Amino acid sequence: MRIAMVGSGYVGLVSGACFAEFGPSVTCVDVSEARIECLRRGEMPIYEPGLDELVGKGLRSGRLTFTTDLATAVAAADAVFIAVGTPSRRGDGHADLRYVEAAAADIARHLTGYTVVITKSTVPVGTGRRVAEIIRTTNPDADFDVVSNPEFLREGSAIGDFMRPDRVVIGAESPRAAAMMRDVYRPLYLLDTPMVVTTLETAELTKYAANAFLATKITFINEMADLCEKVGANVQDVARAMGLDGRIGRTFLHAGPGFGGSCFPKDTVALVRTAQEYGTPARLVETVVQVNDTRKGAMASRVIHACGGSVRGKTIGILGVSFKPNTDDMRAAPSLSIIPALQDAGATIRAYDPAAMNEAAPLLPDVLWCQHAYEVATDCDAVVLITEWNEFRALDLDQLGSVMRSRVLVDLRNVYRPQEAVAHGFSYTGIGRGHHA
Ligand code: NAD
Fold first, then answer.
1. Is the pLDDT reported for residue 90 higher than 90?
2. What are the residue ranges spanned by the domains of the chain?
3. Is 263 part of the annotated catalytic residue set?
């Protein structure tokens, strides 16, 4: 079994390295020479825990290779995965399929022998059939099947998610293609991982439905948090008590600054567009998108309010800028709306993130980047915790406060207990913890 992985980003690189660990030979392809050169040297172009060890192991075993030469990789492969980006199209929010379509045409030209072409990228319903049409038009002699195999891994725990997924979803139209996919995922079959083998359309829609549902859960608890603040309740207790109901479940019930990241924002909008196109508007998801956008915008006002109504001439320290811990991914991170809004309101920003500062610096101009949390806090009028990295979970609040100009803590992830912060002399603002909480 030989696999070609077209696109070596968060999904392609992790999937490729994991497949190589399972046994097959995997060639990861990318258009970026710099990325491939870096990977050949065993250096990681992204931050993902455990990835450097896994890639190193794959390189040493000879089962994992990196190239920009798509032609050779595809010609040798039994299974070709498309794992390129599908960002939001400017203007209408529909998934931009230009990278998928370009990859499909490129792949088509180099197919030899029976090959399964698999879309792992998150793509709207109908894309699998469009990919098949592109391949057929570009290379009428090609012997191939198209399969949809959406990926559910999470950045920050991507390897574990890939190796021990809750399920694998496969949209395959022919028994031959389904058999090849079972082969590709054989080690997971042996672990009794549930496999949902279904149609192309069902597999494609499943990915969007799952992401929209999780985004809805987050948005729901965020609205409950706002209500908690008004009525004096504690959203963390509400979430825990709700989540202990097996029908609801405890995950994705953490109130915060609104969801960001490389998937939920673009996938919810893309689902809304698809539903509108088919004349069955997904009104619930439309509302989730609007509520979340408004929420991200409102977070800067929360900081300004905590600072007494104005941040003009004040210095604000930011802890964490990536969209979540354990990743350097800045795509649609809440920090990208909060920090510029505070700067527009006249604040000077100091910030630190354990992994994302290289990615963040070009996106967030005029920020003074620091080396640790206490350096961030120095001479600050307030510190704002945006991303709950582990190293921000047990800060010495006395030490933090001692270097600040005034002890104001805005904790957008509810990492600290209000009483604890107050005991250290802080004025504390969390999320969804009202005056009785
Ligand atoms: P990414 O931007 O990190 O990586 C995409 C890579 O594809 C880039 O390195 C780019 O250079 C390369 N590329 C683009 N066109 C190419 C071509 N024609 N040939 C070869 N390489 C090409 O994107 P990502 O985060 O890995 O996401 C990929 C897809 O997976 C998206 O559809 C995304 O929605 C989906 N997805 C992402 C995650 C996640 O957590 N990041 C999780 C599940 C699904």
1. no
2. 2-197, 212-429
3. yes
| Total Cβ atoms within 10 A of residue 33 | 9
Separation of CA 296 and ligand 1 centre (Å): 25
Task: Please give the mean pLDDT across all residues of the chain.
Answer: 97
66 marked among binding-site residues: no
Q: Which pair of tokens denotes residue 267?
A: 């996938």
Which numeric CATH code is attached to 212-429? 3.40.50.720
Topology (CATH) of 2-197: Rossmann fold (3.40.50)
Does 2-197 match 212-429 in CATH topology?
Answer: yes
Question: For the segment 248-303, what is each residue's pLDDT rounded down to a tens digit?
Answer: 999 999 999 999 999 999 999 999 999 999 999 999 999 999 999 999 989 999 99
Catalytic residue (choose from 18, 28, 228, 263): 263
Helices (H) and strands (E) in the chain, counts: 18, 14
Closest approach atom of ligand 1 to CA 32 = 11
Say how many Å lie between the CA of residue 100 and the centre of ligand 1. 9
Q: What is the ipTM of this complex?
A: 0.99
Tokens of 246: 């097996």
How remote is the C-alpha of 13 from its chain's centroid? 14
**Unique residue bearing structure tokens 């069955």:** 280
98 is known to lie in a ligand binding site:
no
Q: What number is the average pLDDT over the span 71-78?
A: 98
Is 152 labelled as part of a ligand binding site? Answer: yes
